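Tutorial handout. Part one gives the primary structure; part two gives the three-dimensional structure as tokens.
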Amino acid sequence: MKKYDFAFIIHPRDKQELLKSYPIFRFIPNFLLYFISPRIVGDIVYKDDKGKKLNGALIAIINLPFQFLKRDNKIKKRILAALKLASKIGAKIVGLGSLSSPAVSGGLDIKDQSNVSITNGNALTAAVVTDDIKQLSKIVKLHKKKVHVAILGATGSIGQGVVHSLIGNVDSMMLIARKQNKLDNLNNILKEQHPDYDISISTSVSEAKESDIIIVATSHYETVLSPEDVKSGAIIYDITQPSNLKKEDWLSRDDVFVVEGGLIRIPGLHVDSITGLDNEESFACLAETLLLVLADRTDQDFSLGYVIQENMKEIENIAKKYNVSSLLKAWDKDTSWGEIKRFIKNYA
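Part two.
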């Protein structure tokens, strides 16, 4: 059996993607997907200019997003089975990709049952999001006195990390999440630490209406951003995988710029095309897993549960060492800061 240095867990983003890879599953009821073993579906290869080479495995759990969102023991067993496979092929650390992370509380629910180190990839994701939003805010501020940012999924692992990092870098924030008690707890912490900062909270997505920048950091079906919830000239920064935005709903809104964020470029990286990424492109969560191997930080779990600022700083420093840079896409196509600047200027 081929040996690997690390592994990254993925899953189909929808039924269509599942059937593209496995047409026979068209005739299999969804509940039977829980009985299909995780499998290696592709490779991640990193090679630097000095000849150092690392091999990673893409391990697929053949379950659909709604099954992960149930966060029950059935999906937990699938994730543990994927970790067992990763250990068997020699992986030193495993990244919890897409909804495999929130399905087990960012790794907290399985850390004591795993015999391989794990990371949820959220530390680097939060760092990349923070840097991108800071840059976006500076551009918006060239044309407006104040920049208002809304964060959907503000109480989640990535959301909280971004909220704490953005305070003082944007003028005000609207924090949006499904559960009022979690919003209240986060708001109380922020108000205690930053009593004069302009923060609002809401369980309603429609409260994002007046925001200049909207960060979509939740894939939950109860928190869906609709075109009518967004003002003309707004920038939407979507980091959800699978995306919480339906492309067909937004094509008529040419007065709104939708950015696919949480992506990076890393020289020397090749990821199997099953991810939809090109050479040297990566989800930040996947890159975090690779970077931890490069930095020889695989002896223990890294990012579990909520993102902490220390982990963000550490992984960001490692990323800089390996020339990692931010990557922006717009509906799966590369975009640039120049395009965004022109858009903001036109709708200022």
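Part three, for discussion. The domain at 126-263+327-346 is CATH 3.40.50.720 (Rossmann fold). The mean pLDDT is 93.
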